[in-house]
Amino acid sequence: MSHARGLVQTFQTKEGRKKTEVRAVDGVDLDVAEGEVVGFLGPNGAGKTTTLRMLTTLLRPTEGTATVAGYDVVKDSEQVRRSIGYVSQAGGAFSGARAGDEVVDHGMLYGMKGAEAERRGKELFTQLDLDGLWTRMPKNMSGGQRRRLDIVMGLIHEPSLVFLDEPTTGLDPQARANLWEHIADLRRRRGATVFLTTHYLDEADALSDRIIIIDHGTIVAADTADNLKAQVAGDLVDLEVADAELVQAAAQRLDSIAEAPRHGLQGVEIEGNHVRGRVQRAGKAVPGLLRDLHDADIDLESIEVHRPTLDDVFLTLTGRSLRDAADATPAGTPGTATKEN
Ligand SMILES: Nc1ncnc2c1ncn2[C@@H]1O[C@H](COP(=O)(O)OP(=O)(O)OP(=O)(O)O)[C@@H](O)[C@H]1O
Predict the structure, then answer these.
(1) Residue of the nearest CA to atom 31 in ligand 1?
(2) Atom of ligand 1 nearest to the CA of 47
(3) Is the distance from CB of 57 to CB of 73 less than 8 angstroms?
(4) CATH number of residue 118's parent domain
(5) Whole-structure pTM value
(6) Strand order in 193-198's β-sheet?
(7) Boundary of a domain, candidates 229, 251, 276
(8) Domain holding 272: CATH number?
(9) Which one of 1, 126, 134, 157 has the lowest number of neighbouring Cβ atoms within 10 Å?
């Protein structure tokens, strides 16, 4: 339904008298199928918003092509705009009118009749838990309510494809969780295709059918969260060996089935009585390991298996932790950038 090939966006910036070129997006290919929820994940400054602005026709690509909802973003920009909903990072600027009037005006901008926009707006208010707020001024709403109002505005003309730029940034954890439900609902109830940017790992993981990871303007991975985790990082196996003298022997056994050390993977590590290493698909590898340890009379106090996180995926692909990379998170965003699920 939407495809991009070789998208590039460069900006000219001035530092003092020196002009430099920033390649904010550097050759992005992406495909979004109908009815999918795609999470576009990357650290601050990776190029997420710039890509989104090109896909939503707000920024003309420096190079490359994109079709969105079947229309070319440059040649058929008008049709693209009519087919999509876009909720920007900053949210809409509200005029000081009542929320319901803003929504109806917005629908009429898209060519809807007033009565139709009102009916649809009220339906969306109910779906997004905004009942009773139709006549409230947006400035008197909570952050979470205002963000949901942004989403009503983005959906008023019934787009089949919705772009959400960091929909939960700036919200408290409860409001975030609440908005996640509404986003999941968009697809469930309306069959909408959703493309959302985020730098929250848990958000991408919880919401997306497929995750596209961008770093320094290039796509570094695109797959389901499960496949990304399985292909790249492997599961972490943590053995606690009962007898300190057998720790080395246990480490050798784990090493024989562990992933080779490479970017982001350290090989087998020993810490006290603990031996840790990453293996592909622990569910398959661990029973054999346990038999092996048993045959060698190596007793364990405990064994733990941790599924990899999206942060492990990012670390393996880029050599950096997404959490560190996201530490430049602007002030006022919730401290959940570091939360894992
Ligand atoms: N108008 C502009 N002029 C110059 N540089 C820009 C402009 N817009 C974006 N950039 C630069 O392009 C790069 C990508 O920015 P972009 O906003 O797309 O990143 P992002 O992944 O959306 O980040 P965030 O998560 O912080 O929103 C950054 O280095 C940014 O400073």
Answers:
(1) 45
(2) 18
(3) yes
(4) 3.40.50.300
(5) 0.79
(6) 84-87, 161-165, 193-198, 37-41, 210-215, 218-223
(7) 229
(8) 3.30.70.100
(9) 126
